Amino acid sequence: MAASVMAGAAPMRRLRCHRSVWRPLEHLRSCLWPQLGSGTLRSFASGGGTFRCGSCGQPYAKWQGQCSHCAAWGAIAAVTSASAPYRQPNMAISAKKKAKHGGRASTSWTQSPLDVQGGVQRMNAVNAETFAERLALPDRELNWVLGGGLVMGSLTLVAGNPGVGKSTLALQIANMLSSSGDAVRDVLYVSGEESVLQVKMRATRLGVVSDNLFVASETNIDAIIDMIERRNPLEDDDNDTRPFAVVVIDSVQTVFAEDVPSAAGTVNQVKECTLRLLRLAKRRNVPVMLIGHVTKSGEIAGPKVLEHIVDTVVQLEGDAQSTRRFLRCQKNRFGNTSEVGVFTMADNGLQPLKNPLMAFVSAFGDEFNDENEIDGTSLTIAMEGSRPIPVEIQALSNRTYFHVDARSGNSGAVSSRVRAVGVSYDKLQLLLAVLEKRARVPFQNRSVFVNIAEGYSIQEPAADLALAVALASAVTSRPVIKRAMFLGEIALSGHLRPVKMLESRLVAAQKIGLDSCIIPTVHCADTRKNLPTKCSKNMQIIEAATVLDALKVALRPLPSSDSNAVDAYELQEY
Fold first, then answer.
1. What is the homologous superfamily of the domain 134-354 according to CATH?
2. Max Cα separation, the chain?
3. Is the pLDDT of residue 90 over 80?
4. Does the model's pTM come out above 0.85?
5. DSSP string spanning 552-565?
6. 159-176 pLDDT, tens digit each
7. Calpha distance 164→321 (Å, rounded)
8. Residue partners of 360: CB distance under 8 A and separation at least 6
9. DSSP 289-327
């Protein structure tokens, strides 16, 4: 055995550690290694590099004497490399994968450009014809949401709550693309949550019988990419196999990369797998559709960068107790955003609604006739992107005598209760305060309940006036005028503010057979000039400056014989 670790070093001595355990100096020779305290350590501290074992390739965040992976001494050295935000964290595993997959090791998307041609090009010289191609879908609602179909080379994310129908929608889209049109397309459906037999059972129930639809059950991202690359070669590759036209992956939270040291569904796994699929979609010019999960708060599961990476984000929404489904577009690099498609869940999957204009309102002949007048119900038209959606608002109010206050939890106090379904609680509280202050509508010692028909949710301020009319009608027991629509944002002063896309809302109101519409006072000259051309003579447009003026027109007087209407009164200014 050598008498010293280094030339000129003192003979081996036995040192006492802090736990009174004698150890030979041979185990502490890493402390005498020449690299300790050298410039390589200082370069890492300044952000210039990292450390890696020269024997096995194991990376380290800081220098140490012995490699914990291969037990080699003195093999860890500093490695200076270019900055890469998504580097492979384990070269040893990557080397094993390279031998396993025939010499092809997985690489991060940042190590090679997305464009096959690469380099700097003149904008006018870029050929955009191939990229602008869309795969049109036979479903009218899907084309409406996606802006005309799937763009070649795009990455689309479809998210939604458990059981809302994400996998059903993905399987239907895959079947549509593989069996529609004159062109023959092969579509690959990769499931990480079901076996091939289970996917076949669900496809049989939905009536998916296309011969060009291929299915696989795989969660390894490199194996999935291998499937696609074998069928989708580059231009210089020799392969006579017909490539996949579309790839559907269900879901992105179940796939994983072996060279990322974390479980599937974690932040790093979701980010790295999505980036590799993005690179695949751009280089091979194949549209890829991902199915994504959501958290218990309704947000898309995974890192926020997931929504930034993909080209299109659509979310499938719906009530578990209802068959109605809404497909909302939240992001679209190739079309309009905020579009919505309306579907109904049937035995054979999601089916588009034939008449979305009348999907959320009751039949006029049932509730709005002279023999059966109902208070607390009003109509408005909400805009989802460029699509008008008629919405029915229902309100109910009664006296509160003794109950437990839901806000404070104190019993015995006579206070109002407020419950809302489909409306923001803060918005409802604001409208109640404005109505009580500016229109003298008493809500003290009353319980107020608001519901939006068919499980719809109102987000825009244009429905403020319709909410106020329904609330005032419920408190005063005065019915709302028949076949009327109410549009307007209510300010804290009680004045009505204009709404956007007024002409489109009026045209939709005319199509569903409404007779009158109460809107804020129009001050824009161009809008006032276009109103007669947008609406027919049979539709009356009533302008109101304040919420009090609108309520005086919207609420019908009670018959004098109605002695039970103890809540009836004349609206007065404060």
1. P-loop containing nucleotide triphosphate hydrolases (3.40.50.300)
2. 117
3. no
4. no
5. HHHBPPPPTT-TT-
6. 999 999 999 999 999 999
7. 11
8. 389, 390, 391, 392, 452, 453, 454, 456
9. EEEE-B-TTSSBSS-THHHHHSSEEEEEEE-TTSSEEEE
